[in-house]
Amino acid sequence: MRDPSPPLDSRGDPPAASQRLALIDALRGAALAGVLLVNLGGFSLYYFLDPAQRAALPTARVDAWLAMAVQLLVQDKAITLFSLLFGVGIALQAGRARAQGLGDGPLVRRLLVLLAIGLLHAHLLWWGDILTFYAVAGLLLLALRRLPDRALLAAGLGLALFTPLLAPIAYRLLPADLADEATMHALAVAAFSSPDPGVALRGNLAYAHWNWMALWSIFPFVLARLMIGDWIGRRGLLQDPAAHRRLLRWVCLVGVPLGLAGGIALETIEAAGRTAAVLEAGRAAEFGLRTLRRLVPLAQGLGYAAGFALLFLRPGWDRRLAWLAPVGRMALTHYLAQSALGVALFYGVGLGLGPGGGLPLRFAAWAGIFAAQVAFSHAWLARFRLGPAEWLWRSLAAGHALPLRRAATAPL
After folding, report:
1. What φ, ψ does residue 354 adopt, rounded to 5°?
2. Which residues contact 287 (CB under 8 A, 6 or more apart)?
3. pTM of the prediction?
4. Residue 139: which residues within 8 A CB-CB, separation 6 or more?
5. Contact indicator for 380, 330 with CB cutoff of 8 Å
6. Which residues sit opposite 384 in a β-bridge?
């Protein structure tokens, strides 16, 4: 995910309405919709099923097509957008702090509070938390912000594309007795299907800790996108898209087709059962395939962001897309609420819907949840300055309760 709420000033207070960047808020709202759709794969337990179990579902034929659409259009692309926007948010907040003569202290406190929220979320509710990674990567990014713009962009791109080079180091650090994926997936299904809250909580703890080690590449994935997002924020690409129309058009026209073509190639190799053969064909083939896997979501995510910005510049489209902006302004609240709703709908401790409904049920839940969150965002921000979770986050970071209720005459 990205910075789950828009930047406030460096004292921790909300910016004036005239300072809001509607494009960034709306893009964050759109990215939140994609993250929900992807995360529902975990909430619904469909993610943990093996191919035979998925094929046995009554919706298997439809699932195959819908899963392909999610994989090609949304998987890893939505989280790329969130991460880029988190980096943009850090650039904006750091720039505001510098203009006010403040150091990194307010931003460090904000990230530390976010880390605490992420750890609680990961341990008590959902193993798939991304806030913890954002907080840690954000703190590391502050140490890298002295890099010149070009060096920051080059380092971010290099880390994003060539993460496989870190694999030998990572594998040496992993425990020798780390459980395999099939074992952990079976344990997860059993735990999350149980109506016993204690069983579900213990299963969540075990899977979260295993996930952090087994999927070690999530951290460089996030850090690289934060670095690229910081560069985007420094250059003002989303703050003033009209001034960068030519670059944005190039990124969109190259990034989206490149990502789609690469994604189709990867799915074709997988469908033909050739993935293992390519990985074993030699170091060059293995490195190429693993690098392509990292190029696809980055190129496509950047292309989506650029295309959204260009569309926002078209007459009338700014108003059409701006209905997503309140969702983006309350993204931390909605991200946490999505976890609670996902558990309540699909886990055994809730309604226990599980994976039996396949992807049609997952899409129905996605449409219902996100529509409700859009409506709630508009109603809430008509009366309050910040979302509930955003208010708590900012107040804890500032060390005092921030004003929440909106003045009667204040504009949205």
Report:
1. 60, -160
2. 164
3. 0.91
4. 108, 111, 112, 115
5. yes
6. 405
